[in-house]
Amino acid sequence: MPGRLALTAAAGIAGLEALHRRRNWGATADEITRVLPGDDLVPEPAEQTTLAVTVAASAEATWAWLVQMGQGRGGMYSYDWLENLIGLDIHTTDEIREEWQHLAVGDRVVVVPGGWGPLPDGYAFRVAEAEPPRALVLRQSPPEHPWNGVWSFHVLQADAGRCRLLARSRTTTTPHVGARLAGRVMEPVTLVMTRRMLHGIRERAEARSDGMWAVHVREGAAPTGHAPAGRGRTVPMVLASGAVTKVPGGRGRAPASGPGGTAEGRYRPGGRPGGSGGAR
Fold first, then answer.
1. pTM, whole model, 2 decimals?
2. 18, 94, 138, 224 - which has most CB atoms within 10 Å?
3. Angle at 214 between CA 168 and CA 263, to 5 degrees
4. 132-186 tens-digit pLDDT
5. Helices 177-206, 59-66: inter-axial angle, 10-degree rounding
């Protein structure tokens, strides 16, 4: 029996190590080695993982979903059912919401709510860098956190109408064998959840615009972003005036509330718009 247990443990460790060597899912050799914003916050020696997907949408459209992430905000775009199975109360949105479009240095992005079992104070990352629509760097460091690391997201324009969405995890290498082993054990879960998160953002950014997409219209405003109007095409997100405007790729118009007023709408992938001023 001891021999069998030892063999099983050895096989498990070998499997975890093999997975670790293949941890950079979807990332190219250049993306894996590229120095990205936030890397400098965690000097060598460090453990680093980079995951990536191609998104058939503009950087602006992709960023609009990414920046909403967080518990109590737009959710995590991953497996809600699994996160809620352990009581994390995560609810991923299918809408672009204006109140979730702004993150600044020092803001908290919550991933575990307060009052949750093993972490009664919850768990949140601090925003270390926010460069729309290119980079979002989330920081964890002592004494607020037990680890020194960053979780960063990067939107790299690939070509017309397409971008690459990268997620990088970088943490200081610990000298403690037990901590390193614990990290290896948790790594498959982290990889699977993060991969699903990237795909969840991609699906929403690529979805056909059947309605309005986070429209806030004010008199004399200049366009500040783009909304997806199908794979590889974009339409202005903020209109130049309060006039009634046809939305390419949509199914209606975006009426303003009046001269100099605002009209708000929410884009729902593949669904009907919500909020006031939505297309019908």
1. 0.69
2. 138
3. 160
4. 999 999 999 888 888 899 999 999 999 888 999 999 999 997 655 555 555 555 6
5. 120
Summarize pLDDT for 89-108 with one digit per residue, the tens.
Answer: 999 999 999 999 999 999 99
The structural domains of the chain, ordered by start, are 21-206 (3.30.530.20), 208-280 (no CATH)
| Whole-Å CA distances, 243 to 65, 98, 168, 191, 277 | 26, 20, 42, 46, 12
Cβ proximity of 205 and 267 under 8 Å: no
What are 106's two structure tokens?
């020092």
C-alpha of 41 from chain center: 20
> Rounded to 5 degrees, what are φ and ψ at 129?
-145, 140
75 with 200: CB under 8 angstroms?
no
Q: How many angstroms separate the Cα of 118 from the Cα of each of 113, 121, 135, 185? A: 11, 9, 31, 18
DSSP string across 159-209: ETTEEEEEEEEEEEPPS-HHHHHHHHHHHHHHHHHHHHHHHHHHHHHHS--
Residues of the chain with pLDDT > 70: what percent?
61
Percent of the chain with pLDDT over 90: 50
Supply the DSSP string of 117-145, one letter for each residue.
TTBTT-EEEEEEEEETTTEEEEEE-TTTS
Summarize pLDDT for 197-223 with one digit per residue, the tens.
999 999 999 994 333 344 333 333 333
Q: Using CA atoms, how far apart are residues 239 and 236, in angstroms rounded to an integer? A: 6
Distance CA 133, CA 31 (A): 18
